[in-house]
């Protein structure tokens, strides 16, 4: 370029930053002859966009005071907020003495995004000036927390003429809280419905399992956009109707974006999804954070380490490897594929580790039964200043259960509320039952599960029932199974287990009665299946399936293996 000025330099820095090519952006920034506020802001945005917050903060502190305007403060605040570092965001916010309503709204939105209701409301009340966006953010915060009475009152108290965004926030609040009819009623009274409000209603119907009404609204829309179509596509995926989802995607949607591809890929969840990812790239759609998280997770679920490593390389080329959620999904994938050393190597290469990253590594160690490593990672996590959450304790309790560490497990369970103010969920109770069950402490497990809320899911009860069968405690097993079937009469696994318990006690009539009732109620046990990756392709095997083209060879080999196994077992 023969003639360069500050504008062209800034464009280059912004372009590199938007494409996550942060090192190239920094080299341009360092050699440009003169910098203005746009230069500093562009470089700052590049760092925060790549989640390089330490480098961003160093740069922010170097900005000359005469150039450090509200945009600079907003970019740095948003960087902290986007990455869940709300305490550092608040610390920075408090240092900004010349705050305007925009900066206050940014901090308020941060609290809203992270569900910090009390902090948000305290800030809202202390703001010297509030605009309509402030009121809408606080309304959204109440709605997200399920406080619909407070949201409704605030909506009525808004001192300005409500715009479409305020109306839509209230409608979305109703939908998110399952109050679909109230949301529809408010939508019908909305004076000027824009396309965002229509889309809000469609997605609300979809998320509440009312796809038929969503489709009806979609057909009646005066104008549609890609978001409208993506919502319907998601509706099909949510119902597990992949055939109609694919038909809608290929034949009805007149335009698609990365979100469309992501939705369809997430719905398929088999190796076919990875071929769809390849087709997405062939059609020149650019993968984003969600694309990589979804596809990498599929690789982990199916143990497709070849695909997983290829995706890892792509995240390095596109710099998405620096994204906390993408890197965490890669760690999880390596762990599930049995490559725990690769998972640890990637973990050590990450500059900034949040609670999600630490949890992923703790879960990985727990998955592989490395109790010492898992507990050591937990200690390091606390020392680093990261607070544990529900997932952390779920991993720790799992490790304790697998290793029979009853005392340690009890201590972790008790510390959840006493030290970290985290209420145990049904999954944590199930882990504790697993811990007690493995040690034969069935009545201790029963007493613990009895403390759960009545409307809690039955995971813990189901775990206890399995241990009752394992330890031959049929009396307690019958009590537990009856409790489960009161709330979940169509639970196939529990019906089968209860039938087996009766059979083990010699109560053949009772066992047959359970099986008969299952047939009458059309309760069917899900057929088991497994996947095997071989020669770069994946084969799916379903119980008693004879549709494979090499069925006869497969079953013949199984018979041969069975004979060999029996011979070996007689020799041992």
TrEMBL record:
SUPFAM superfamilies documented for this protein? HCP-like (SSF81901), TPR-like (SSF48452)
Instruction: Kindly state which keywords UniProt assigns to this record, in alphabetical order.
Output: Repeat
Name a biological process GO annotation. plant organ development
Answer yes or no on keyword Repeat.
Answer: yes
Cite a single Pfam family from the UniProt record. PPR_2
Segments annotated as PPR repeats: 5-39, 69-103, 163-193, 194-228, 354-388
Q: Quick check: keyword Repeat in the entry? A: yes
Q: Any transmembrane segments, and where?
A: none
| Single GO MF descriptor | RNA binding
The record's NCBIfam families line, in alphabetical order, gives: PPR
Q: What is this protein called?
A: Chlororespiratory reduction 4
Q: Gene name on record?
A: LOC110726275
């Amino acid at each position: 370029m023969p003639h360069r000025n500050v504008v062209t330099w800034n464009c280059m820095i912004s372009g590199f930053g938007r494409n996550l090519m942060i090192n190239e952006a920094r080299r341009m920034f360092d050699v440009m002859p003169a910098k203005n506020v746009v230069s500093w802001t562009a470089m700052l945005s590049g760092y925060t966009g790549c989640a390089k917050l330490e480098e961003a903060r160093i740069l922010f502190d170097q900005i000359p005071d005469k150039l450090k305007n509200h945009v600079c403060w907003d970019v740095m605040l948003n960087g902290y907020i986007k990455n869940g570092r709300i305490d550092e965001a608040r610390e920075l916010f408090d240092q900004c003495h010349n705050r305007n309503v925009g900066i206050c709204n940014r901090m308020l939105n941060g609290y809203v995004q992270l569900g910090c209701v009390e902090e948000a409301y305290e800030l809202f009340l202390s703001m010297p000036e509030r605009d309509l966006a402030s009121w809408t953010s606080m309304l959204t915060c109440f709605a997200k927390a399920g406080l619909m009475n407070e949201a409704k009152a605030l909506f009525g108290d808004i001192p300005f003429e409500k715009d479409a965004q305020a109306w839509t926030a209230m409608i979305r609040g109703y939908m998110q809280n399952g109050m679909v009819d109230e949301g529809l009623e408010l939508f019908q009274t909305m004076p000027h419905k824009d396309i965002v409000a229509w889309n809000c209603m469609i997605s609300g119907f979809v998320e509440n399992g009312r796809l038929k009404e969503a489709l009806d609204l979609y057909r009646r829309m005066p104008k549609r956009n890609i978001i409208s179509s993506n919502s319907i596509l998601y509706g099909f995926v949510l119902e597990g109707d992949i055939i109609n989802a694919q038909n809608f995607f290929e034949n009805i949607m007149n335009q698609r974006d990365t979100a469309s591809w992501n939705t369809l890929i997430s719905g398929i969840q088999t190796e076919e999804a990875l071929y769809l990812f390849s087709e997405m790239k062939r059609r020149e759609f650019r993968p984003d954070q969600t694309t990589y998280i979804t596809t990498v997770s599929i690789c982990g679920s199916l143990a497709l380490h070849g695909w997983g490593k290829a995706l890892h390389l792509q995240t390095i080329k596109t710099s998405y490897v620096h994204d906390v959620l993408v890197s965490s999904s890669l760690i999880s994938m390596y762990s599930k594929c049995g490559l725990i050393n690769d998972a640890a190597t990637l973990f050590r290469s990450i500059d900034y580790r949040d609670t999600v990253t630490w949890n992923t590594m703790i879960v990985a160690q727990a998955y592989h039964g490395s109790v010492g490593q898992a507990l050591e990672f937990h200690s390091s996590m606390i020392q680093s200043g990261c607070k544990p959450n529900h997932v952390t304790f779920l991993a720790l309790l799992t490790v304790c259960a697998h290793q029979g560490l009853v005392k340690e497990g009890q201590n972790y369970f008790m510390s959840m509320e006493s030290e970290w103010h985290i209420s145990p969920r049904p999954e944590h109770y199930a882990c504790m039952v697993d811990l007690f069950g493995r040690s034969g402490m069935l009545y201790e497990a029963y007493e613990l599960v009895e403390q759960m809320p009545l409307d809690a899911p039955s995971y813990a009860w189901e775990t206890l029932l399995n241990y009752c069968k394992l330890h031959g405690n049929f009396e307690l097993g019958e009590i537990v199974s009856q409790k489960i079937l009161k709330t979940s009469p169509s639970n196939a696994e529990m019906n089968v287990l209860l039938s087996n318990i009766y059979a083990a006690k010699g109560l053949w009539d009772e066992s047959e009665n359970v099986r008969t009732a299952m047939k009458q109620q059309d309760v069917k046990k899900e057929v088991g299946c497994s996947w095997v990756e071989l020669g770069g392709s994946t084969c799916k095997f379903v119980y008693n399936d004879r549709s494979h083209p090499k069925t006869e060879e497969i079953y013949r080999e199984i018979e041969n293996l069975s004979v060999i196994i029996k011979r070996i077992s007689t020799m041992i």
